[in-house]
Specification:
It is a single chain. The chain is α+β, with helices and mostly antiparallel strands. The chain is built from 8 helices and 21 strands. The strands form 4 sheets. Strands 15, 16, 17, 18, 19, 20 and 21 form a 7-stranded antiparallel beta sheet that branches. Strand 4 and strand 5 form a beta hairpin. It is globular. The two termini are about 25 Å apart.
């Protein structure tokens, strides 16, 4: 049970670093529920145990124990500029591992809860503007249409302060707690809205069935596609549309038709009317093909997408990260 651990508790890592079998190293639990996206990792798992027990290449997959010999994590990653241990290692928490194992046994795949909101950090300035006593919770910037949050009446501007009885201290707490909640569960969500606290009931959806995290189009061959986790929609660039936008009809691409305020796309400056010419280094031919590329990038664990955007005859590459939902 990784939840029994506290920062400062002893931790023992076991593995085969650099091919040296059955190597044991000792350290402490440096942090719990760590999110390593800020270190440049594409890994989206939000429930990692950080330890300074020496973890090196070859330790991955090995257990992280406490002093009672109980597994509290599975060694999975290190942060290092040299390639060797610098005392910053990460293990998937044993509680997350048990949950994933049970899902694989029962369903053959992983299943995560889905709320359908885009969120941002509650800064002290935002807290003061909204009348909050402290800078805690997750600020809802936008909602996926027809998502569990939308059906429950959650609105942009709401601050989610607790979910299923669990307090949301930082924005990053919400995605982890939602992902770990049972699909179909009806949970109480406490909100702060217009100076008052209120509670709504949400029936949680399944992230994997949300059509690549919020894609609202169901027809894979549709001329229009929407991407909830990125915050924008596109449609095929037809000859008529190229003429209307004064674009070269001989070039391929898709046109941005909508950008959700506060979304990752909006934060990177994407605007309706922009033309997406390339996905990475490949040409974009149709909206359906673009949607397929986005879906594969998401499934492979990438942190976002790189696109070549044309606006008023000028082209530039833009990297847009997938939002936590």
């Amino acid at each position: 049970d990784s939840e029994i651990m506290q920062v400062g508790d002893w931790a023992i890592a076991l593995g085969t670093p650099f091919g040296l079998e059955r190597t044991v190293t000792l350290g402490i639990v440096s942090s719990l529920h760590r999110n390593i996206n800020s270190l440049g990792f594409a890994d989206k798992r939000l429930d990692l145990v950080q330890t300074d027990a020496a973890i090196n290449p070859g330790n991955s997959g090995g257990p992280l124990f406490n002093l009672d010999g109980e597994v509290i994590g599975i060694n999975t990653a290190i942060f290092s500029q040299s390639g060797g241990s610098v005392g910053i290692g990460f293990a998937i928490s044993s509680n997350l591992a048990k949950r994933v194992t049970a899902q694989l046994e029962e369903f053959g795949t992983t299943r995560r809860g889905w709320l359908g909101v885009f969120i941002q950090e509650v800064t002290p300035d935002i807290a003061d503007s909204l009348g909050l006593e402290s800078a805690e919770g997750a600020l809802v910037s936008s909602i996926n249409e027809k998502s569990p949050a939308d059906k429950a009446g959650i609105e942009p501007g709401d601050v989610i302060v607790s979910f299923d009885g669990k307090k949301i201290q930082k924005m990053r707490d919400l995605p982890r707690i939602v992902a770990e909640t049972d699909i179909g569960a009806k949970v109480a969500v406490e909100l702060f809205r217009e100076g008052k606290s209120m509670t709504v009931t949400v029936e949680l959806g399944e992230l994997e069935k949300a059509e690549v995290v919020g894609m609202v189009e169901t027809d894979a061959d549709s001329d229009k596609q929407s991407f909830g986790s990125l915050g924008f929609s596109v449609e095929n660039l037809t000859a008529d549309l190229a003429t209307e936008l004064d674009l070269d009809a001989e070039l391929t691409g898709v046109v941005v038709t909508e950008v959700i305020g506060g979304s990752p796309a909006a934060q990177k400056g994407l605007e309706p009317g922009d033309v997406i010419r390339r996905f990475g280094q490949r040409r974009v031919e149709t909206a359906a093909a673009f949607a397929d590329a986005v879906g594969k990038a998401k499934e492979s664990g990438r942190s976002g997408i790189l696109i070549l955007v044309e606006r008023e005859g000028n082209q530039r590459f833009v990297q847009i990260g997938f939002a936590d939902e």
